[in-house]
Write the structure tokens for this entry.
Amino acid sequence: MAMLESVVETGQTSEAPREIEVPASTAWPLVLAFGFTLICAGLLTSVSVSLLGAVLAVAGVAGWFRDVLPSEQEVVVPVVPEDLAVVTNRRVVDRLPVAPDQVRAWLPLQTHPISAGLKGGLAGGVAMAVLACAYGVLRAGSIWYPINLLAASVYSQSLKLDASQLNAFHADSFAIALVLHALVSTSVGLLYGAMLPMFARRPIILGGLIGPVLWSGLLYSMLSLLNPVLESHIDWLWFIASQVAFGVIAGMVVVRQPRVPTHENVAFAIRAGVEAPGITPPRPIREERP
């Protein structure tokens, strides 16, 4: 402000000013916001409401501009000096106990490698396939029944199979179902490998119960669009049981794999950003030679 600049430029006194100039308070922004609200409300009610809102919006813009142009309206407020004394008996900066040897730690400090997610996804996929085939044998008397239903999600020829043909072996449907099941299982396994280290407490509950129940509910609302044949023949109790089996087995395999440091916490990783002051070790001061 003008008074502050005069004090700094003249250098007559080092004392802080007793008064400063601040922007004056104004109600025009509220008028402008109320005008826009009436404009939108008039779209659902009446044109007259929108016209009133337009008038208020124009008045709010004009009034707000007059407060800042051609010169900003300001008020003088007194300054109450307050002496703040920061006292501490500590001579060093405390470091986090989770990573005492690192200047800046990225959490989680360790994660599972990609191989752990692949192993967990494949193991969970086998467990889910066993339950699905058991359902086919008990329900339809054929292990090919769930396989043909799975292939129908991406293979149009499987949609043309009737009830008797769903129990028969079809090489094309089997190959498509095998590839699709492997891709989905490994993808979810990789997701488990990345997510489970973030949940230190009871990761199996998250991966084996909460996760399968959540995506089963999501599939329940979308399955009629993704796979109408599977939606018309599915038994949701068996479906949820197979998803839980996948989550439990995949989670157990993933959490038992050895962990590796995350990329940001590797010693030779390139770091970018500003370190927090007081934590970064001080750099030695170079003496200038004459």
